[in-house]
Write a structure and sequence with these properties.
Elements: H1 38-63, E1 75-76, E2 83-93, E3 96-98, E4 106-107, E5 115-117, E6 119-120, E7 128-133, H2 141-154, E8 166-167, E9 170-171, E10 177-183, E11 191-193, E12 206-213
Parallel strand pairs: 2-12
Antiparallel strand pairs: 1-5, 2-3, 2-7, 4-5, 6-7, 8-9, 10-11, 10-12
């Protein structure tokens, strides 16, 4: 009988081998990660840094400040420099000049201040009121006395009123009177002020004298602003 050649069918799951009997190598392509563009990343980093700076500035000025606002004047952690000028206040009692305390309006003390009211006094400049505000505003002597009162009482000190019968810690006695002089440093010298002294607007290099009489000291003692102030 003639021989029959049988051919084995390759099943659907059969594996085809190369002539050498080994599987053909499989080429695997590795996709490289695309690099991020440098410019957008740098811009984003700058914006983040600016945002952090603004938050830090706001926190430094207001975030932890628990000192109350007085007569519309807050106590900022940083001294304001946008508007900065000086006025002088001198008190005369029974013919003698009584200096106002240094450090008025500086919470925490001048050595370790925690905040500054826009109206305050530095010990290095005797009787000089520093007006330091972030914007142009009008401030009065009455507002300064309110800041002085809040600052003093907050640390256990006396009240510091200003009215027809009181000037700081002085109470007018029978027979005494209060005279107020204002020298605007315009060459005209001090002038008698007959209105409510609380309404005196603080201006640059103005000298205000609160004089409890008698005796009458006319003209009031001269005042010279320190160099550079």
């Amino acid at each position: 009988m003639p021989s029959q050649t049988r051919t084995k069918a390759t099943g659907s799951g059969a594996k085809v081998k190369s002539k050498s009997g080994r599987r053909s190598p499989v080429n695997v392509r590795v996709k490289k990660a695309s690099s991020l563009p440098i410019l957008p990343v740098a811009v984003a980093a700058i914006l983040v840094a600016l945002a952090i700076g603004l938050v830090a500035y706001g926190y430094a000025n207001n975030g932890t400040n628990q000192t109350p606002t007085v007569s519309g004047i807050p106590c900022d952690h940083l001294e304001q420099t946008q508007v900065h000028y000086h006025a002088a206040l001198q008190m005369v009692y029974q013919g003698n000049v009584v200096h106002i305390p240094g450090g008025i309006g500086i919470t925490g003390g001048e050595a370790a201040p925690t905040c500054y009211y826009w109206l305050h006094v530095h010990s290095t400049y005797t009787d000089v009121i520093h007006i330091e505000s972030p914007a142009t505003k009008t401030f009065t002597l009455g507002q300064f006395f309110q800041v002085w009162n809040a600052w003093s009482t907050a640390q256990g000190g006396p009240s510091e009123p200003l009215d027809s019968q009181h000037v700081s810690v002085f109470t007018l006695k029978p027979g005494q009177a209060l005279s107020v002089y204002v020298d605007k440093s315009d060459g005209k010298g001090p002038s008698l002020y007959t209105g409510d002294p609380k309404n005196i607007v603080l201006t640059n290099h103005e000298v205000i004298t609160l004089e409890i009489e008698p005796p009458i000291v006319t003209p009031p003692p001269a005042f010279t602003f320190p160099s550079g102030v």
